[in-house]
Amino acid sequence: MDKGYKKERFITLKIKRSVAVRFRRFCKKYKTSQSLTLDHMMEFFDRNGVTPKDRLGQTITSLKGQMSRRFNAIIAIIRDIEKGQTKPTLAMLQALFEQHLQDPKGATLSEEDFDFLEPEPGGGSDTDFEIGELTIPKIRYDRLEEKLLSLQRDFEFVLTNIQQVHPPLGKSYLKVNLTQEKIETYKRTLKNL
Length: 193
Description:
The protein is built from five helices and two strands, in the order H-H-H-H-E-E-H.
């Protein structure tokens, strides 16, 4: 018996013999009762908005066409966003960077400030440029040198505050004579490099 339909009575339907035989084979194939199979079929048609005469092949094809039109619309919207929002934002950022590169006096930095320390590849002969060399702007090189000197001073300070301790029993060990705050400061400095 079907769950939920135990107390309901059976009625007859008038259908052709060949259709009834085919429907019974279909029910046996999926191992469901005839009442449940018919109920599931009607739910399927109602839920999907399909009539028994409709062909699902055409419906799926129309869904594919509809989805492709929607995808094309989404692509057009994204391209419009790129043109209307992203590119102007990029232009504003470039203007800010150009403004930031001006001296406090108001003069723009000259071309000499951006001279490269080494020739660019392809700028000179192939024998002048080795694979291990890099092209770095002068300003960036100067900043890297300043960071290196700062790190060397900090490292030297830490090394001067380390002493070796020889206890009467056990192995000797190294003792760091720095406060916790100083150590945290050095950690932050290393993270920010």
